[in-house]
Amino acid sequence: MQKLTSLILFLLIFGLNHAQTYEIQYESSYNGKVQSNQPKTVVWVNETENFILSTKIKDEKPEYPFEISKIEKPQNIIVSYGFLNPNKIVSTSDAESISKQEFEMTSETKNILGYNCKKAVTKINSNTIEVWYTNDLKLKGGPSSHGQNLGMVLQIERNGNSATTAISIKKIKKTGVEKIINNEPSKTDLLSYRDLLWKSKFTTIKVFENEIINFSDESKSNDSIKRFANGTIILKKVKFPKISQGENIFVEVRQQSNGDAYDRTGTVFYIPEDKKQSFFDGLKNGVKTLPAYENGNGKQYFGVTATENYLPAVEMMRFFTSFGINKFNHIQLKDKVWQTVSPFREDITELKPALSEKEVWIGTFIGNYDKGGHKISLDITIHKSDQLVHKNTVAIPVFNTLNIMEMAQQDYATMFDNEKGLTVEFTLDREIKNITMRYITSGHGGWENGDEFLPKTNTIFLDGEKVFSFIPWRSECGSYRLYNPASGNFADGLSSSDLSRSNWCPGTVTNPQFIHLGDLKAGKHRIQVKIPQGASEGSSFSSWNVSAVLFGEG
What we know:
single chain, mainly beta, 13-stranded mixed beta sheet, six-stranded antiparallel beta sheet, elongated, disordered N terminus
């Protein structure tokens, strides 16, 4: 009888201890300064499980997506729950990570909340992680997976400046986790889980998916995608959500050769329709129906400059295809492992005023005369961010000389052979403050004396005064050799894709130049671009693709 009583007492005590749960809250700090804008980390821990969440989640006021982690004891299996939206929960498990952790144990100790703590150190992705843990609580857990097998972790410090530190410990009877994980999650593998959680953190607008841009009479429009200039231009109407201050916008293209072996000019653009006439009218009715720019050199350049009743197409991103990526990867060179896709991605947040809550034509052009052409996918992503680099409220298109309708008789931009260069007059109906000109430029003419291979100064004038001058030049083109399997090789040991160029390389994006212009009063203004364009030689000629949009507050 006495043995039975002792056994019952033991089981009761064990059950109470086993059921005892603690709530530990942690705060984040950087260089000793508490990050008050970040929610506190909450840990619910007992002998069988360790939940990791935040005070926002605990208070049932989370922002989607959010994540809860559970470490099952004593197996140390990490179960992750990803709440993608109010109706979708995904989960995955990881039985290996904790067991693979290696720590260097030290003799250092310190007191945290009255508990004696020891320090262990590890390295993760070149970061030094210090874990301070206590064995006084007779539990193992912490605010992350690090050190789960050491004891109760009360502080984690990364690289000596970023810390997560316990600020309170209390016993609780019930966690309430069942109110949060109240639906059966969809189980998936770890990699898919991470991908789903990551993609749920931003908005993706899929514009094109594996579309062909080629030169062929067989290229026809359909209900969703319009094709012009024998298939070298594709267009789709896209509706943008409201894009708030503090949100960033990115454009991303993935490109492969589908038969064309050459490096080609490409651009992603949108068509403003704020005035009587737009670039879309030129696509439908012919480029010569658009306003013509003349500077006295005897030529007409249609649709390239803003007028009272017309706005040109606006470049979102200029890119250049590589020599035959993927399609020509059968070309073998020793120690060369070719890439299979050219990724082009650029921050275009400054275009927000022209896109937010608007429905606009988004297009992509790749200049080529190949029936196979190129295969592209285009996404636009919108991300919440604390960074406020661009605060502009207006975006005013000024000019775009890139001949998007090249295969529909739009001339190359050779107007810089005249002293007048490119001159555009525009009128502001109100004062605009802190104006910046987003200027994209690249020189072309692919022979030894062509402007593609000769540095040329670009000079910008505002209302007759020189405001900026620079030489647009790229000298790192050889860095992208593995994207250019069909690039020709020369007797000097260089490849064509290695050569320095006037602000572009095969397989890269040409970045905009941001030129500060200050405040501009209401009324008429004039912008002029001068470039000492080289002379033609026989049938060879140089040209310059330049585009500009003005950003400001007003």
